[in-house]
Amino acid sequence: MRCICRAGGSSRLVENGKVGGPGTELTELLKSYGIEEKTGCSCRAVARQMDQWGVDGCRQKKNFDWIVERVKENAQKYSWFLRLPAMLTLPLVITIAIERAEKKSEVT
Predict the structure, then answer these.
(1) Residues of 30-60 as b/e, b for ≥16 C-beta within 10 angstroms?
(2) pLDDT digits over 47-106, tens only?
(3) Cα separations (Å) of 23 from 49, 86, 105?
(4) How many Cβ atoms from other residues are within 10 Å of residue 13's Cβ?
(5) Confidence grade of residue 18 (pLDDT, cut at 50, 70, 90)
(6) CA 92 – CA 40 distance, rounded (Å)
(7) CA distance 78 to 39
(8) What pLDDT score does 70 carry?
(9) Contacts of 76 (CB under 8 A, 6+ apart)
(10) C-alpha 80: how far from its chain's center?
């Protein structure tokens, strides 16, 4: 069962009682580099869309490209590109988040 939980004023994907997904993983990964949502950015909306699409949906080329573009817009708008380690590109960071979500869904 998939549904969107809006409790507590925010939305998140709940699938078979599990909360999270690729967007949640991307949010946590970016936080680990000191990158947090800013007022007016679309980070939460992008993460929510990624969680709704799930792993397979995020891997679809048009969706993946959409994610990269939205994250890139936020990175440029809020100047946080330099916080990512030099060897990480946005597509790589997004791929890592998708893979983490996939591994978590296999465990549960």
Answers:
(1) beeeebeeeeebebeebbbbbbbbbbebbbe
(2) 999 999 999 999 999 999 999 999 988 888 877 777 777 667 888 889 999 999 999 888
(3) 7, 22, 13
(4) 23
(5) low
(6) 25
(7) 10
(8) 92
(9) none
(10) 16
pTM attached to this predicted model: 0.73
**Tokens representing 73?**
């817009």
Contact present, 102 and 55 (Cβ < 8 Å): yes
Q: Read off the amino acid at residue 4.
A: I
Tell me phi and psi for residue 88, to 5 degrees: -100, 130
The beta strand positions in the chain, using DSSP E, are: 2-5, 12-15, 18-19
Q: Which residue has the tokens 């970016």?
A: 30
Tokens coding 75: 């990175």
**pLDDT over 60 (residue 3):** no
Count other C-beta atoms under 10 Å from residue 103's C-beta. Answer: 11
Residue 25 pLDDT more than 80? yes
